[in-house]
Design brief:
With about 160 residues, the chain is an all-alpha fold. It is built from 6 helices and 2 strands; from the N terminus they run H-E-E-H-H-H-H-H. Helix 3 packs across helix 5. The chain is extended and about 60 Å long. The N and C termini lie far apart (about 60 Å).
Amino acid sequence: MDKMLQGRLFSYPDTHRHRLGANYDQIPINCPYRARVHNTQRDGPACVNGNQGSNPNYEPNSFKNYEFRADARYAPYRVTGVLGRFKPAHPNDDFAQPGALYRKVMTAKHRANLLDNIGGHMKDASRDIQERSIRNFMKSDPEYGEKLADSLGFPALKARL
């Protein structure tokens, strides 16, 4: 093993990020040869790729479905058994902590401010996105979803479907 090479493999990209910004790999001299990465990352200093246009910067989304190519996955290889990518077997609850924050940590004033802020930002979103968002807030805390739906002007019962 070449310890110097390993150190440089770490420090060179780190130096680029420090000197040129997070988007250093978009600069033509630094980007991969004959390939363009479309990773939904945007903005920041030294953004030179047109900011990926109007593509959404999150996935999954309701505007553009990204297609993942099966032939681009890592191929399994033998270590002391077969190694591959697997979904974790543990339960991953994305809604328990936000619900506890809303119910147990926030005061009534904090909850009112939160609902005003979220409702104010969601008011111009399309109705289907509002309803899907309300469904997520309902999973965190039913009162949270109900009050947010009220602030957007529709019954939360419709969002429960």
